[in-house]
Amino acid sequence: MLLNTKQMRLRRAKATRIKIGNSRQFRLSVHKSNNHIYAQILDPSSNRVIVSASTVEAEVKKQYPSGGTIEAAKYVGHLVAKKSIESQIYEVAFDRSGFKYHGRIKALADAARSAGMKF
What values do phi and psi take at 43, rounded to 5? Predict the structure, then answer.
């Protein structure tokens, strides 16, 4: 059975989420589209969103009208880290949702780390 690109990404994401779910840590989940990038911190017990940031938000959109850039991803990473530290969440497991750790995903992760998050 041949899988297309999206099916392969979802398969990788499922395997990663099983490993993260067993660790019982807060999860920094990242999703990207061609035009935007989204980051959420989820509670390990109830899978509810505690903190979120994305390029759709007015604050980010004002500075970066095109949300599909590496600079916008860095800003979202910094913003989600700042919000999580305000919520007293310092350590998370990074869930890249099956995307390659490259480009915008890497930029978001590096910005979150430099803002004080540990993963």
Answer: -75, 135
Summarised one tens digit per residue, pLDDT across range 31-67 is 999 999 999 999 988 889 999 999 999 999 999 999 9
> Domains in the chain and their CATH numbers?
5-114 (3.30.420.100)
For 74, residues 6+ apart whose C-beta sits below 8 A from its C-beta are: 107, 108, 110, 111
All residues at 6 or more sequence positions from 91 whose CB lies less than 8 Å from its CB, including other chains: 25, 26, 117, 118, 119
Place of tokens 């989600």: 80
DSSP 41-95: EE-TTT--EEEEEETTSHHHHHH-SSTTSHHHHHHHHHHHHHHHHHTT--BEEEE
Residue 1 pLDDT:
63
With bands split at pLDDT 50, 70 and 90, how would you rate the model's confidence at 83?
Answer: very high
